[in-house]
Design a protein that fits this description.
The chain has about 200 residues and is α/β, with parallel strands linked by helices. It has a single domain, classed as Rossmann fold. Helix content is about 25%, strand content about 35%. The chain contains five helices and 13 strands. The chain has a nine-stranded mixed beta sheet with strand order 2-1-3-4-13-12-11-8-9. The chain has a four-stranded mixed beta sheet with strand order 6-5-7-10.
């Protein structure tokens, strides 16, 4: 069974519905004491990093997520959920993350853009992927739907499995052992997004 973590910061219904389209039952779970009972965890997220970490702490979920990560069972962070996997974020201050992947979360630096572009990065964009089970069966273009103002930077390039170009190249998918994350929203990315979720089911 797959659990979608409910900490009052995620787009839970759409994620759950996307799995339902694939015939996969999921549980929206708000009790951290039950996380270890599931085969896989989804950490969704919409909003600000600092608020999200505060919600996780108030619900005593931080340690439970970290313990699940040590179990070796697959976990997937989506959008803000991916960013929370990292050590820190610069969004509206300095905030400590879950520390499951080495690196930080930074704002798009528009001074590096090759052409005038709007932030947040919103809409369809291509992901250039490395070989990884999450990406099996994607079409050649790999277009996915993004909505974000901040992006991750990895300390270890080996953790990068997907990159996207918006003004400059940034990391849009990561994997560190059983811990995975994607910046775009698979539940809003039609065929390719559903394929990523199907691949996660099969891990």
């Amino acid at each position: 069974m797959i659990a979608i973590i409910d900490y009052n910061m995620g787009n839970l219904a759409s994620v759950k519905n996307a799995f339902a389209k694939l015939g996969q039952k999921t549980v929206v779970e708000s009790n951290p004491e039950k996380f270890h009972e599931y085969e896989k965890l989804i950490l969704p997220g919409v909003g600000a990093f600092g608020d999200a970490m505060q919600h996780l702490k108030e619900r005593q979920m931080v340690e439970a997520i970290q313990e699940f990560a040590k179990s070796g069972k697959p976990m997937l962070g989506i959008c803000l959920g991916m960013q929370l996997l990292f050590e820190s974020s610069q969004e509206f201050g300095e905030y400590e993350g879950l520390g499951l992947i080495k690196g930080s979360v930074v704002k798009f630096d528009s001074t590096k853009f090759d052409e005038p572009l709007k932030v947040p990065h919103m809409g369809w964009n291509r992901m250039f992927t490395k070989e990884h089970p999450l990406f099996e069966g994607l079409d050649d273009e790999h277009y996915l739907y993004f909505v974000h103002t901040y992006h991750v930077t990895c300390k270890d390039e080996k953790d990068i499995i997907g990159e996207t170009y918006y003004g400059y190249k940034f990391t849009s998918a990561v994997a560190h052992g059983n811990i995975m994350g994607i910046q775009p929203h698979p539940e809003k990315s039609h065929k390719n997004g559903l394929q990523i979720l199907e691949n996660f089911i099969q891990l």
